[in-house]
């Protein structure tokens, strides 16, 4: 049976995780929409890659600035928050589950529920805990991730007017399994991504505390700006390594989506047999640039997203811990 202290800790972690995830997701939504548009576009997305355009027709999006102008002109400011509702419904439980499970694993590893004691566990356990927490959070929130991708990528005119219509249509045409299309590459991606994100964050945090202790003599207090930099580094490194798997996931999620022809070639139903086949086909048809479509907005987004998430979590967690009786 759970002790009152453990229940309180779980409540703090889940609440702080949900709040930090919601803030981060809303702030970085425009970059996420641009990233998704690049990832689901079969045509080249950069000027230097247009040498391969003979395989497809003209490219709708060829750069971040051009994509930003086109989305704003065609869909208005609201276009940059397309799919934000299912994204919030996805990211808030995702981060709530992630931080709760992460804290539980660290408690088991350190033998203590205190956050300061968690810094004493092996760096390897930080990576493993982050990976397991990411897997648990992914399975629990995945359908909303799928709906977010579809609504963010459909453009104008809309294929689905709202989240409910997309949900009903997917159930009718693809069944319950359709809500988990692309789950395998997502789990394969999330293991190194979440592991690197949380493990690297803990590593940078340890280094910063050691530096502060050395510089300030026995004071290892970390400033909010230092926490921001730790989250920045963690988010950037994790996203850079795992991006190709994210591209494959997005292709699985939007297969069969009947977007307007001006957005380019469509991903046909069952275009990819599995994750490996998806990677192989993308590489064969689009080259290395195809596997890294959207990497620029992705990294630009991952850095502040990781930083905002960790800083918001630390502050919210500390506030709840000091105010909950």
TrEMBL record:
Main location: mitochondrion
Annotated protein name in UniProt: Uncharacterized protein
Keywords: Membrane, Mitochondrion, Repeat, Transmembrane, Transmembrane helix, Transport
Lineage: superkingdom: Eukaryota
Topology relative to the membrane: Multi-pass membrane protein
Family affiliation: Belongs to the mitochondrial carrier (TC 2.A.29) family.
Cellular component terms per the entry's GO annotation: mitochondrial membrane
Free-text function comment from the UniProt entry: Mitochondrial transporter that mediates uptake of thiamine diphosphate (ThDP) into mitochondria.
InterPro entries: MCP, MCP_dom_sf, MCP_transmembrane
Organism of this sequence: Penstemon smallii
A Gene Ontology molecular function term of the record: thiamine pyrophosphate transmembrane transporter activity
Keyword check for Mitochondrion: yes
Solcar repeats: 8-108, 121-207, 222-319
Subcellular location: Mitochondrion membrane
Organism placement in taxonomy: Eukaryota, Viridiplantae, Streptophyta, Embryophyta, Tracheophyta
